Queue: 4 jobs
Job 1
Amino acid sequence: MSALNDLTLAGALKGLAAKDFSSRELTQAHLDAMGAAGQLNAYLVTTAERALTMADASDARRANAKTGPLDGIPLGIKDLFCTKGVRTTAGSKILGDFTPPYESTVSANLWRDGAVMLGKLNMDEFAMGSSNENSAFGPVVNPWRANGETQALVPGGSSGGSAAAVAANLCLGATATDTGGSIRQPASFTGTVGVKPTYGRCSRYGIVAFASSLDQAGPITRTVEDAAIMLRSMSGYDPKDSTSINADVPDFAAACTRSLKGLRIGIPKEYRVEGMPAEIEKIWADGIDWLRAEGCEIVDVSLPHTQYALPAYYIIAPAEASSNLARYDGMRYGVRVDGADLTETYEKSRGAGFGEEVRRRIMIGAYVLSAGFYDAYYIRAQKVRARIAEDFNAVFTQCDALLTPTAPSAAFGINAKFNDPIKMYLNDIFTVTANLAGLPGISVPASLDSSGLPLGLQVIGKAMDEETCFAVGGALERAAGFNAKPGKWW
Amino acid sequence: MSVDAKTVRKIAHLARLEVAEERLAPLADELNGILHWIEQLNEVDVEGVAPMASVEDVSTPVRQDIVNDGNIRDDVLANAPRTEEGFFVMPKAVE
């Protein structure tokens, strides 16, 4: 019999319901696996005692037949979510030992539904990065390695700890966030499923802010159904977030097996970028064939402003970040480095507390918002964002969802792109458009490349239509039959 | 448009970030690399387009102006680097 941490989330729910094992046993199996996986650097904090207390409480609820939809399920939480009484760092030194006196709405929703917290997951500092190398606590190592190689690969970012922990069976699912691709790209790099829902579907309350008009929470799991179950619990209206959408949360899991007959799938020609590896072209073509076999109609479409999405993002996101991160002043929380006066204390605290990429983005943001440059950079980028949103509105009159690759490459080596910001930014070329337009997207593992590394396909849906993403994602998952796991070397 | 070391010093001050003198020139190069890449946005025809600040086409919700949270002074102060008698302690801001 395989270990309890090898189950899917849906499988574990069935086993708990059948009393095949307790939440305490399931939780302990994960804590044991986490204890043996230190080399991956996926968890920043393990909350073993709390996990076992929550598991016992779940077992007691089950004995009284009073269970929630996630009762007894051990999960990892990205360290961007505030967790009451548990240190929250956002992957940065500047927050010091910040211990939130409140809980994020998304994590509170998971606990309300009976889930168990295993610990806090490593990430790029303030969710800025595509490789996890920007964490102040060292990079996460991808559990996947190329065939016959021992070189350490990145897990993607910024939710690299979440993706690595799910891929290495160190939790049944993890929370993550996505501002430009930070759920979907690491999912693609680790052979896991990642969902960024419609902007406003999940409350941002208690999630450390990066770029508020783009940030959105979602799950990373091992199957499409698991992601659907987890997202349902994470979602919902929250008066504490003024951008939270007041709408019913559908039963996403029911959509995973929905028929695709007659569904129109758009293939955007602009996503066929120069220099894209032939293997990624190939899985994209396979994906098209699989969906055609399910009865989908394939439609060639155009999103003419695609190439401008990343440059627009690298104005809008840093501008919002420079405003959001102004709060780290060393006065009310976090690290303070004393200077001769107040201004110097601010400058020294922020200079010492923020890492290199965060400093770079704050400075880009401060520059594009400064007098004389605001219209030329910031307002123009917001206009280009409107053009990108118009592109999607136009194609969604011709099709119901879009199919694209998730990322332009498989996982790369640690240090391979670290000193070339633009090369790093290009990782998000296929994912960032959905953030700018606020649309839902899912990444599903589709195959291994010739060196044995996972590659993902992305489905982008209409606003508030995650169900079609889950339906198409479920069909891709069944057709791909992807069941590869990283060989255990850690 | 491009930035020089002097401009970088000014931006760093606006952003309240201490930058070591020898980092100013390399930072200018890095920022220029990004700014030049961003300049391709000038190719886009944005005539008559309204800038988009949010994907949501709704006005900000308002609530009743009543206190629904409070009396949590100790929670608010719990993470401060320095406190005294229920106050944050910070360097002198006014002479």
Note: Residues 60 and 67 of chain B are 19 Å apart (CA to CA).
Job 2
Amino acid sequence: MKVALFATCLVDTVVPQVAMATARLLERLGHEVVVPPGQACCGQMHVNTGYRREAVPIVANHVRAFAGAEAVVAPSGSCVASIHHQQAMVLRRAGEDGLAAEAESLAERTYELSQFLVDVLGVTDVGAYYPHRVTYHPTCHSLRLLRVGDRPLQLLRAVRGLTLVELPDAESCCGFGGTFAVKNADTSTAMLTDKMANVLSTHAEVCTAGDASCLMHIGGGLSRLRSGTRTVHLAEILASTEDAVTPNQTTKPAVPA
Amino acid sequence: MTTAPERDLRTDVTPLAPGAPRSGTTFLGLPTAPRGVGHLRGDQSFPEAARTALRDGQLRANLGHATSTIRRKRANVVGEVPDWEQLRQAGKAVKTATMARLDEHLVELERQVTARGGVVHWARDADEANAIVTRLVQATGADEVVKVKSMATQEIGLNEALEDAGITAHETDLAELIVQLGDDKPSHILVPAIHKNRAEIREIFLRTMQGVDPELTDEPRRLAMAARKHLRERFLRARVAISGANFAVAETGTLAVVESEGNGRMCLTLPQTLITVMGIEKLVPTWRDLEVFLQLLPRSSTGERMNPYTSMWTGVTPGDGPQEFHLVLLDNGRTAVLADEVGREALHCIRCSACLNVCPVYERTGGHAYGSVYPGPIGAVLSPQLTGVEDNASLPYASSLCGACYDACPVAIDIPSILVHLRAEHVEAQEKVTPEAAAFRVLAKAMSNPRLWHLTQRVAGLGRFLARGKPTMPAALPPPVSGWTRSRDLPAPPKQTFTQAWAREHGGRR
């Protein structure tokens, strides 16, 4: 299958290794990966902060960039949820009905990584090897908007060498919430503290999830505390093999001692 | 004593046609809840109030304990209903249909209540409602009233209005009593004293209850007995009771209050005069509709299969119960909420507070930080709509949009979508360009043009030089980034973006 990769603005700019891992994984599974060069952002940050009018050209750009794609995959539950639940609504409100219909049809072909692997490709064992103790945080939008359920866990359980430990109070939000983390920094930090306490209670080396944004939040906190527990995106774990732990993945702690 | 029944409610509440133009919170000039009366506005923004609350370790412990207990109870009793989702959708459907013809149902309710010996009063806002109730109490000659726990009367600040008129209001719900005796404010819709633990409650009782046993312990049963003794004499001497209503049935004119303690039943049956203040959105068209909500409400609120007391009354019954019944129908901004196509779903709320109990923000900040009697997720969508968004502009942002509230809501109110909608209403209500708006506009320009976007990414990538080769950025950065970096590290941007690396690898230029 020819898969168009939507890196997402955050991954592309800040943690490119996550998109690279997604591409490597899909290629290893025998699929052709294309990266439409016109892609930028799904518009979620604008919409969720109240700038739905300003989001219109961003969404229009996204729809243009991926026009004609057979399937679009993104390593983010949150961005895919925005594509599914917000894009058409934002366009329709702005009177862009034609574009809204295109956005809807594009959304039908857009998948979060774990859903694409399990539901579309029908694989749970992607042939990965990752010799680490790992706990999984189900991010809110993948959990409640996309209903990815236990798909990421199915994928993680099939990874050789990986010890999966259950995260207590896993379904509680980490406190990221986009601009919430800045506008309500104190409340966000209180939520993060409890999430980190749960992560650390598992004695996992790695906390993984399907969203780079939430991981940047949890990882930023764990790094600030010099906890030694790092955050690694699900795609990076699934891309890892015995031959190369991953082509681009950092396995060192985020902050060296 | 009916006031202006001829007022043309039909034009007041007719919902907008889909797609009709709309703008800001002063839409159509529909009145919002007035300032200077009631408890819908705080004196601090949510982030400021939250900052103080978050430092209160006792509050955090009390809330964490209480919300996790009630969450567990709710999950158990909801889980045992096989058709919960259908029930939930039925609740939503009944509410949606009711709101679409609210004007007709209200007039029918008035007709039925009046036919059965009750008197209906229409209150445009908190001031009108307070004036009506005060006048009614004064007409009885009483200088005190007993109260059933009611959100509507808290919303309008009725106790304070009565006090100004020399009338003492006694709250009879245990938690509401604790709040009243402690000169405190409610912090939860269902459990107003959720922020207090039993040691603190014991202290309040010892300090404020006349004739309380000085040996009082913090054992829940002993505390309840002390409250019962305190309240019993008030029930017996009260001539006037004031209540809210959980539901009103339009076709029969029946009012309903559900409760756990029996104090409500006392208030609704013992006094001579009963005055009920009810938001206009609380009615259901038919008796049959109650079936749905009486299943949804107790399981969602207290985590019980059925609430211990369900009191229903229809007008006046000679020789039995209150011989004078007044129903005050309160708007106080509700018609303005109804006019908003997206926001009107907030009027479906049945005040169960399940959304508060599952909210990670509420669990940490508590209810006072919201500044309104309606805290938590539903408060964050209801309060700003009742007052006009600009009077509660920080509330729609008091959420990480995690969606737990939507999942828990027994009438499936899409709270996160309303929050996002209200954020936009706030942004679009600004007449001047804020620095934030300017930044978002520039970013929007960049994100809708690939060439500009790649340039922006390259500029952002220069941030790595601030990190001086370290994997993370300096902790001290200027606002608004400081909001992040005060408690979390920010990774240094990489040398090249993914799309750059990919293009290079595949022989093209990006």
Note: The radius of gyration of chain A is 18 Å.
Job 3
Amino acid sequence: MPSLKDLKNRIESVKSTRKITKAMQMVAAAKLRRAQEAAEESRPYAKRFNAVMAGLAASVGGSDSAPKLLRGTGSDQVQLLVVMTSERGLCGGFNTNIVKLARTKAAELKAQGKTVKILSVGKKGRDQLKRDFEDDFVGHVDLSEVKRLGYSNAQDIARDILNRFDAGEFDVATIFYAEFVNVVTQIPTAQQIIPAAFEASEGSEGGAIYDYEPSEEAILADLLPRGVATQIFSALLENGASEQGARMSAMDNATRNAGEMIDKLTIQFNRSRQAVITNELIEIISGAEAL
Amino acid sequence: MADTMQFDLVSPERSLASLQATAVQIPGADGDLTAMPNHAPLITTLRPGILTVESSQGTEKYVVTGGFAEIGEGLSVLAERALPVAEVTQAVFDEVAAEAAAARDNATPETADALAKQVSDIAAVAAELGLQAKA
């Protein structure tokens, strides 16, 4: 049975924990709004980009002259997994879910006898994956200094990946991130970026026959690397929004749990106090009777 | 005969403009071109330069660095980086120029020509805006 003083201290400490989680929840909510706006702003670009690329890819894609980024290297022996996670913890299952998906995929590929290489973006994923795949790491991108994600961050990552591709370090690249659905739901997603796969846009674009300046091939060669950067950028933004959403709901739960705990401890505190008073009274009364 | 067309200028980070334009001058990779309503469908890549948009509200200018333009029903310009001319200060410009110069210096022989052209295109933009271009 803890003493009254112990109980009081515990209540105080849970109360200050609740203040912290509450504050974190509110910060995450504000950041989430900003992250969502950023993700929305980037959507028109990505959408149009993909529409144009799909059209181009469809007309050039089949031929042998198509760039390697579209056609692939003709093999899928060496797989690069780009795992995007957050730099900070305390966001529920967010990082774990992404890492779990990446880990399953990596194990699957290894079972098929393929070589797996891992490039991590964000500290948390690296820490979790290091345990099982220490030897497969080829690099890490640190974004902890970045206050606001910009397109240039995505370009840097894309350049790194493309340089590795040009050097023949891998055949297929897949990015792992969490797609933001709403505050409570984020879906871990795997998306292949090299060789590029574009969903064919239906109907509307199909009608017009475009002139290309310079040639179709030149435009495609120019745009494919940008496409990689664009996809990475939207994945980063989705991930940013997901992280804040996950943190917000995790902190909301923590705040609620702390509240319940305070209630429980307060009841226990009051009961013990009552017991002490009763005890004292009994002692006084029985002392008086003894006289 | 429509005398305006839908014009959209988007960069990866935000959408800069969406309006009815009468004519747009585009710095295409193979040379400048002006898109007017009912232009034949065309897709062209951009070189760093100045995009001029004429509409009923007047003329607006944007600096773009690479990307592409799609002329179809309307005109969409997808620029890698785009800024209204007023926002292009010396500091912003120096950053872009330094990036391009760094890319040129690290270039492989096959891409060296294209990257050197980028640098000179950027210098040309500077001259037009009256900014200081560093070699």
Note: Strands of chain B lie at 5-10, 15-28, 31-35, 42-45, 49-55, 58-64, 67-71, 75-79, 82-84.
Job 4
Amino acid sequence: MSAPPRDPNVDVAALRRLDAAAIDAAYDAWAPRIFAFLRRLGASAEVAEELVQETFVRLVNHAPTLREDTRLGAWCLTVARNLYRSHRRWAWLDGTRLLELAAPPRPPGPAELTAATELQLRYERALATLPEAQREVLLLVVGEGLEPQEAAAVLGLNAEATRQRLARARRALEEALR
Amino acid sequence: MIPDPELPIAPLLPPAAVHARIRDAVRAEARRARIRVAEGVLHAGFALGALAWAVAAVAA
């Protein structure tokens, strides 16, 4: 299976009109990538599925007010990340889920990774050892191809802090790959 | 060194059945959103019509 295009072209004007084809196009372009982003942040498959759905429900409900120049991927990734953080905060209050949160994130297994090569599995394992803050900046900039200023907006950081975090994350990943 | 701009990680996809189920839920939400927008337009039309009727009645 080939990788999806890095910046799929979704018609935001049509999305603002709640055009069914545009909503399908946005979903097809971004849902798998949001799912992968959440799984690699440490969400279980069930939680990632739930949050992908909530992200796109929010997209539909906000679509009429989107700006024409909205970068859809960055918008969806911001919402998904915020939902995941919120989910984790609530999970801390739910005693039945403490064990799930205490466990370190498990990298996705080979069965989940489509056509993974040995090199890709090495990177997955190395990525999973990084702190979440470093993992997410790498996934956004290097994985999803966001511009550093877009990643900064997703992360709620300024450009310089994002640049520094990215540099640390690259060093940590190289270290983990040794 | 990490290849740039691509991180060599494999596609990680939700199961096809899950993907389809979520897409159906999103489509259903879009239908509800379109109905809300249409109702909003209809209510605005009614309000405008009522206002025009009231102005005409006062003027008459």
Note: Chain B has one domain: 15-60.
